[in-house]
Every structure is written in C-alpha cells, then in structure tokens.
Amino acid sequence: MMFTLVLTRSYTGNLMSLLAVRYIPQPFQTLKAVLDSHATNMVWEAGSMYDQFLSSVEAGVFVGVRAAEENGRLKYVKSTEYTPILDEQVRHGTHVFIFEDLTGRVLKANDFSRTGMGKMPVN
Question: At what angle do helices 49-56 and 61-70 cross, to 10 degrees?
C-alpha cells in the first residue's frame, strides 16, 4: 500500500510539472544546425575576422557557410544596421544573427534599454 502511494504521488507530480511548464523552443545551438535549416538565412558582422577566414577556409563546417554565401543565404551588415536587421528580419525568424559574445551582450543591453523587454532573439 505504501509503495502504491509513493508511486502514484511520483507519477502525479511528474505529470503536473510536464503539463504546467510552457514549452519554449530553443534557438539554434550550433552553426551546423543553422546550415541544415535551409529556410533560415544568416547575418554576419561585416569586416570581421570571420569574413576573411571564410574566404580561405578549406575544411570543416565553415566550408558549408561559404557554400551558403554562394547560394545567397549569408548577408554581411555593418554595425549601424544591427538594430533594423534585428527588428525586421531576426525577430520574424527568417534570419539568424551570428556575432561575437561581446557584440551580443551589447546588442541585448541596447535592445532591453530601447524596448524595455528582454525579448531579443538569441539565435
């Protein structure tokens, strides 16, 4: 009887937690996942070291990034264009902004200051 009580309470608790928590889709975790999603375009920082690196890469996942650039799935933007790109394309889910960690922190802080909400997509 005690075993049945513990088992039913455990099942009820797990079921309740699964039903009560809202499912939030995770953003892309790897560059390979972005490349595999053919409906998603990439936005990279113009003039960064990655721009130069992509022109000389010969192996690895960055070869796929170079191929995506040749197919028109990669766009380079200057720092003055970050906010419009985030608002018009990244928020709608058609583009993924790939940036360095420091740039991302600054963009998140600016977005929070501008909108008052911490809802910048972190793809």
Answer: 90
